[in-house]
Automatic annotation (TrEMBL):
Keywords: One-carbon metabolism, Pyridoxal phosphate, Transferase. One of its GO terms (cellular component) is mitochondrion. It comes from the Eukaryota. This is Serine hydroxymethyltransferase. Interconversion of serine and glycine. Its EC number is 2.1.2.1. GO terms for biological process: glycine biosynthetic process from serine; tetrahydrofolate interconversion. Belongs to the SHMT family. The modification N6-(pyridoxal phosphate)lysine is found at K235.
Amino acid sequence: YTTLAEADPEVAKIVEDETWRQFSGLELIASENLTSLAVMEANGSMLTNKYSEGLPGARYYGGNEHIDILENLCRERALKAFNLDPKLWGVNVQPYSGSTANFAAFTALINPQDRIMGLGLPDGGHLTHGYYTAKKKITASSIYFQSFPYRVDPKTGLIDYEQLQVNAGLYKPRLVICGASAYPRDWDYARLRKIADANGSYLMSDMAHISGLVAAGENSSPFDFCDVVTTTTHKTLRGPRAGLIFFRKDKEADIEQRVNQAVFPACQGGPHNNTIAGIAVALKQAADPAFKTYAKQVVTNARAIAKVLSSHDYKLQTDGTDNHLVLWDLRPLGLTGSKVEKICDECHITVNKNAVSGDTSAQVPGGVRVGLAALTSRSMTEEHMDIVADFLHRAVQIALQAQKEAGTKLLKDFVTAYSGNGEASQQLAAL
Ligand code: PLP
């Protein structure tokens, strides 16, 4: 074997440049994190070469004696990381990503064209929770199922559980999905369970964003109330890019078989064993007391950012946060999230534009999402958050000043000064 640098200097250079980008700037994308070297080593290992369709002990390929040990270890660690009794809970560790985990969970639980209710995308929900627009069914979750999203209360930004209760009573969904991509507060799982029970619905949590916080006990556990819990493994959990599906075994005798068959062969082929090795490593790390300290610091940092931004009178959805992210509503300032994202990009601060409740455009939404998982992995604490929040404040002030001067010249000058990139300033003017 030759090294990457020898075999393909072009790709090696891209990897090096991206590595430099990740460490030279401030990474504030709420769905991202910096996984450990150990996870990356496992992820880049020889295990990528192996086919192992099926489950441990029941494969469609030979030579799986080591892979079986690995997958069993990963399953054990997944249950342990979330403090689950193996008699009550099982887990499938093969999903390639959060989206495929969700679709496999739907496939296991409900039938095509059954009704689902998830949090709407503009309210913080994820695409895979049934998103569609007036013009189009956008995702498989709305193409293959009937979807009626629930909302946050536009005044408070909090989930409108009361309206959900009323609507679920009328709509009678087979499945209620909780979990979000841009919701800064903890969930009332007990209330959701009551709503699900009143309507004969399954309750599924997609805890992708907060799973590291759940493992560490920083956010409440969906396992106390849900039938199925899915997660990605690469956000606050800090593993490789993949998904997990946990299922409660004590209510339905065949649920284990349904989930496993939904993953393979219904939705996927051979598991990515290199990734499963990475997940196993991440789960070991998540069970370590040091991870609890990390997760606690993530929440402390998010709250510290929220506090500074609020002190400047900026509007934050729900006026604060219980988790790793802050959803910043820029609409009262007359700014778009896309403009602020672009300005931050030019300063090597990576945030992402995000819809806030009431937004109609995902391309030019009214907010940005700010997440603290990655910076906390770089050992930043609340003291550093004053500086980070100040950078964000300055970026927004520049955008405002430019708008006040009724033109984009200042913005262009700013971008050109920071990046020397005329093309970037033109793009910015269009946002
Ligand atoms: N579920 C939630 C709540 C998410 O936020 C995301 C991605 O950000 C996903 C699922 C999809 O995960 P993936 O990108 O791994 O498919």
